[in-house]
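Handout, section B. The chain below has 144 residues.
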Amino acid sequence: MSKKSLPAHDIGSGNIFADLGLPNAEERQLKAALVVQLSRLIQERKLSQTAAAKLLGVKQPDLSNILSGHYRGYSVARLMRMLTAFNQDVEITTRPHRKTGAAGRIIFSPHAGLPEEPLQGIHASTTGVMLASEASVGLARRTG
């Protein structure tokens, strides 16, 4: 038996949307990560799309579109609010980037029994402000 060799290929950047040359690749990556988390929560609770849509305040066909990857009309903020409907805290933490002069990045890190490695994607500058979105409290701002 001979070993099969892989065809020539490039190592991806970690963002399939950027690798494909799509516009707004970083935002698409973040939205995809949020939708994956939303889908996991729906499955974890064993909810039908109809029940999940009611909980989220959207129509079932709209939720079906979101879960099928058609979430273009939904902002990152709206997708994060959907996660809070599942009693999830969505926390955005900023800190100085490790490499001076390099663009910062946004890292999505799911918790509670989900994969350990974060889904990475958006490049942004850092400001030192923390925002936490909680289901019952709304947005709270803390500096420092």
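Note. The two ends are 61 Å apart (CA to CA). Compare this with the example in section A.
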